[in-house]
């Protein structure tokens, strides 16, 4: 087991609004109870995924985060490995881990 007990790691879940007011009411209650949900003020829509990414970056500036990690809800993260990788980087340098596909074409139909 790789339990993460570092207070230097904080998880936040960025969630867009739902089309049903009842779902948003429950979401707000859960956000207030756990304190780890940030509700972004627009309806959840794949076309607005860039806005959610910007909200994550803005939040990182607001809380003075040294590093920000964005991943989707279907991603399993080895936080211990991420911490190790971040620790191996000179603190004055940026770190990008991932893959940019410059030739990706968006799906227009389907």
Topology overview:
Elements: E1 13-17, H1 21-34, E2 37-43, H2 49-62, H3 79-87
Polypeptide structure, described:
The protein has helices spanning 21-34, 49-62, 79-87, and strands at 13-17, 37-43. With 110 residues, the chain is α+β, with helices and mostly antiparallel strands. The protein has a domain at 13-87. Strand 1, helix 1 (21-34) and strand 2 (37-43) form a beta-alpha-beta unit. The chain is globular. The termini are far apart. The model has no long low-confidence stretch (mean pLDDT 85). Its EC number is 2.4.1.-. Keywords: Glycosyltransferase, Golgi apparatus, Manganese, Membrane, Signal-anchor, Transferase, Transmembrane, Transmembrane helix. It is an enzyme of class 2 (transferase). This is Hexosyltransferase.
Largest sheet: 2 strands, parallel
End-to-end Cα distance, whole Å, is 41 Å
| Proportion of beta-strand residues | 5-15%
General shape: globular
Number of distinct beta strands = 2
Helix content: 25-40%
* Average pLDDT level: 85
Structural class: alpha+beta
Number of helices: 3
Q: Which residues sit in consecutive blocks of at least 5 with pLDDT less than 50?
A: none
> What's the arrangement of strands in the largest beta sheet?
1-2
Specify Rg, calculated over alpha carbons.
Answer: 16 Å
- What string, H for helix and E for strand, traces the elements in order? EHEHH
């Amino acid at each position: 087991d790789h339990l993460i007990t570092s207070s230097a790691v904080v998880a936040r879940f960025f969630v867009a609004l739902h089309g049903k007011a009842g779902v948003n009411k429950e979401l707000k209650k859960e956000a207030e109870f756990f304190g780890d949900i940030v509700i972004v003020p627009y309806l959840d829509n794949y076309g607005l995924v860039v806005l959610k990414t910007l909200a994550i970056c803005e939040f990182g500036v607001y809380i003075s985060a040294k590093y920000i990690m964005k991943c989707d809800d279907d991603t399993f993260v080895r936080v211990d490995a991420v911490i190790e990788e971040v620790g191996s980087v000179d603190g004055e340098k940026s770190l990008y881990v991932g893959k940019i596909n410059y030739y990706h074409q968006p799906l227009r139909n389907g």
